[in-house]
Amino acid sequence: MRFARFFCSRFSPFKMAKYNLVFVLGPPGSGKGTQCSKIVENFGYVHLSAGDLLRAERNNPGSQYGEMIEDYIKNGLIVPVEITCKLLERAMKDSGKMSFLIDGFPRNEDNLQGWNKQCGEKVNLHFVLFFDCSLETCTERILARGAAGSGRVDDNKESLKKRFDTYMNSTMPIISHYESLGLVRKLDASRSPDEIFKDVKELFSKIN
Ligand SMILES: Nc1ncnc2c1ncn2[C@@H]1O[C@H](COP(=O)(O)OP(=O)(O)O)[C@@H](O)[C@H]1O
Ligand SMILES: Nc1ccn([C@@H]2O[C@H](COP(=O)(O)OP(=O)(O)O)[C@@H](O)[C@H]2O)c(=O)n1
Ligand SMILES: [Mg+2]
Questions:
Q1: How many CB atoms lie within 10 A of CB 123?
Q2: Interface confidence: ipTM more than 0.90
Q3: Mean pLDDT (the chain, rounded)
Q4: pLDDT tens digits, residue range 127-162?
Q5: Ligand nearest 50 Cα, by number?
Q6: Residue 11 in this model has a pLDDT that exceeds 80
Q7: For 17-201, which CATH superfamily applies?
Q8: CB atoms within 10 A of CB 68
Q9: Ligand nearest to the CA of 58
Q10: What distance in angstroms lies between residue 47's CA and the mean position of ligand 2's atoms?
């Protein structure tokens, strides 16, 4: 088995093509979704937001995880990776495409370990796009988004505090991990969307 894998990876004409990937991280409200939409328009990536996939699964009446996901999201906690990874994998496969922006993932150690185990070998990670933004600015944006009618159960002060705690305690260490691998591209996300996108564009133009 080991020999077969070695042989296939080295000599087979049917070498398995790998997915091209960029992870997008940053605090809630840093503009991950906003910038991902612009990247999709300009560079033809498929945008997969882990949060959006979880919300869709929660709304699926046939899902056994609906209530559990609702509970995690309200409390700003990170859903177990088995669920999120399965949703991401399915979305990647169903898209029929090869290049993805994975927004809001991996967000904690469980996400990172689960992903590496399940998908690590099937992907080529270009870099981790990190939107750096003060929690004050993010708070203003999220509360405005909630007041404008986002319909999200977690766009309120109480949930947001928990989301920030999770970000500081669980997501920052993941960003540091990728930083130690030289994979983080950090941008100042306190600026206007267009200003941020100028820098984003430069990074994506350099891929390939
Ligand atoms: N650079 C920016 N400046 C001001 N407001 C922004 C900026 N980027 C996004 N927003 C707004 O802030 C809110 C959060 O943005 P979003 O892209 O959903 O961030 P995230 O996915 O990181 O939570 C949205 O209402 C969005 O319109
Ligand atoms: N990898 C992930 C991403 C999101 N989530 C859950 O989904 C919520 C919303 O995530 P999101 O990415 O849509 O939120 P924003 O950072 O975009 O505001 C998180 O607070 C978590 O409860 C998760 O459990 N695991
Ligand atoms: Mg988002």
A1: 18
A2: yes
A3: 94
A4: 999 999 999 999 999 999 999 999 999 999 999 999
A5: 2
A6: no
A7: P-loop containing nucleotide triphosphate hydrolases (3.40.50.300)
A8: 15
A9: 2
A10: 15
